[in-house]
TrEMBL record:
Protein name, as recorded: FACT complex subunit SSRP1
GO molecular-function term, one example from the UniProt record: histone binding
Any Gene Ontology biological process: DNA repair
Family: Belongs to the SSRP1 family.
Main function: Component of the FACT complex, a general chromatin factor that acts to reorganize nucleosomes. The FACT complex is involved in multiple processes that require DNA as a template such as mRNA elongation, DNA replication and DNA repair. During transcription elongation the FACT complex acts as a histone chaperone that both destabilizes and restores nucleosomal structure.
Amino acid sequence: MADQSLKGTNWGRVNIDDKNLSLSHLTQNVIKFPLKRITNSNIQKNDIVLQLSTDECAENEDMLCEVRFYIPPKEQKAEKKKQESNEEEQDEISYLQQVQNHIVKKAKIGGSSDSILTIHEVPLIVPRGKYTMDFFKKDIRFHGNTYQFTTDYKSITRFFLLPMPDEVNLSLVVGLENPIKQGQTAYNYIVMQFRKDLEAQIEMKYTREQLDNIGWKGIRLEYSGSMFDIVCDILSEITGIKVVSPKNFKCKNGLFCLRCSVVPHSGFLFPLEKSLLYIQKPVIYIKHDDIKEIIFQRITQTTQNKFFDIKIVTKNASHLFSTVDREELDNLSQYFNSKKLQVKKIQEENEGIKNGKDDSEDGSQNGNDHKLTLSQMDSDEDDEDFQAQEDSYNSVQFQQKVQKTRAVKK
């Protein structure tokens, strides 16, 4: 075994065996870690970016979560010349891509013939792209053209099947305890989208006996029907988690969601039986039990104001859902009241003016200090009185100052 380099050298040659990946300089290792820790590998310009699992680390422990190998363009050309005697297919693949393919294969983060079930071309909204899903005994591996990631079955916490407003697609939202990462972005939810009319027929690669041995006794050998039904049935059976769908709440137009915005993105808010769920970016999940207060803002009835905002204050944060259609105000009020959630309505502009007038009238009757309304402050009489007082004050004060100055000089 090579010794560990302590000189601070950060260059060398990548070595990959069946269990470990290492970067060595001369006869010493610069860095070395197990292949099983690699959860994703992708190419960014001249870099190979490796994302590492942190499941085995303690909460406050320092951890290595990403490694980048930079391969200079000159090095790539030199390696290509050395391999000119090989097959023509290899000449078409750059040295950078060859290293990437080798890592993906050895770390088993790409497609694999050892999987129990494979579903091709699954469209994902979050993270965006088309991925192939490989189901294994303990995890699911998603692999696409650029990114690959893995999620453990134990990390899945909830499922939601949501009918979209276009009445053509359905979104399957998968909640994760341990987020997946792509670059600097972490995703706590995976959002798949299926067409309602998409039919499929899927067969397991394992026999009935093999499925029973790994504990998948409820999984059938063959599935046929709508794709979203197949995926929901398989995931629910493996994890033991029920799929939640909207039931009682409906909008004015008969849909199960409200169109709104969470700056700077627009999306859809689904009021569910025990929670609220907003998709698409970002995915926001709010339990009813965590809500402290709900505030309706900008609900003044005017011809120009056709929208209002919903501010939801939870135990740890607050969320603002803006540009909600004002026609949905009554539906939402009934929904929150039925869930025994505290709702506060704020009529901002007109209510403030109205209150100002009432305070003014009460103050004048009681002889107390009164507040001027906007109409009073903008009146011509107020302007004239103020100007007259200002002119008289200036003239008197000026004469007094002149007299005092003359007296001092004498």
